[in-house]
Amino acid sequence: EAGVAQSPRYKIIEKRQSVAFWCNPISGHATLYWYQQILGQGPKLLIQFQNNGVVDDSQLPKDRFSAERLKGVDSTLKIQPAKLEDSAVYLCASSHPQVGYGYTFGSGTRLTVV
Amino acid sequence: AQSVTQPDIHITVSEGASLELRCNYSYGATPYLFWYVQSPGQGLQLLLKYFSGDTLVQGIKGFEAEFKRSQSSFNLRKPSVHWSDAAEYFCAVGVGGATNKLIFGTGTLLAVQP
User: Fold this and answer.
1) Residue B10 and residue B25: Cα distance in Å, rounded?
2) A9 to chain B: which residues are within 8 Å by CB?
């Protein structure tokens, strides 16, 4: 089966600019996650969707980050305006709700804010 | 609060030598525990997981891990390391409930000497 697709792979922006990341999960996976992985740290959950509804966004900095999952399939994560500390790899993952913790991760988008 | 500690930031082993990566967790209930591997530029790949039952868990690529409740540990082992095992390894705990959220440790970077 096809994996979780993410784009772009790399992005360099200046601080205060905006940026968007895209994720296409595995077909049939109703649950979608966005994790932030800062260099030297483990991934941290930003937001979780079940179909097109938000299940958990407690760690999402809502003053600058937003995410949506229209039609319960693809998802976009946006940062506006970006800060230097947003430099990280943004990982998207999906899972089937019937399979406990059956995550499949994408390769991630590496964001550098200068 | 739930947390995962990986005390070793960086480990170097010789090819063919045995390997043990340490992981300690803090979680009030019976934990769901995971080990993931991440190669450069790649997403996270699941090596093995523990939900319940036998405390010695076998995974892919010849890895195994042992759950020790008394020590709050879930150490990863491999009897003979191959050069292709060089990567970053993350231990994670699943906090359960409806979210299936994972909390990751900070990772251990494994280097393999010829």
Assistant:
1) 19
2) 41
Our CA-based measurement puts residue A5 at a distance from the nearest CA of chain B, in whole angstroms, of: 11
Residue A52: CB atoms within 10 A of its CB come to 14
CB atoms near residue B60 (< 10 Å): 10
Q: Give the single-character DSSP code of B78.
A: E
Residue A24, SS3? strand
Tokens found for residue B37: 């591997």
Identify which of B14, B42, B32 has the alpha carbon closest to the alpha carbon of residue B99: B32
Terminal Cα distance for chain B, rounded: 41
What would the pLDDT profile of A52-110 be if each residue is shown by its tens digit? 899 999 999 999 999 999 888 999 999 999 999 999 999 999 988 777 777 899 999 99
**Alpha-carbon span B77 to B105, nearest angstrom:** 17
By the CB < 8 Å criterion, does A58 face chain B? no
Element (H, E) at B108: strand B108-113
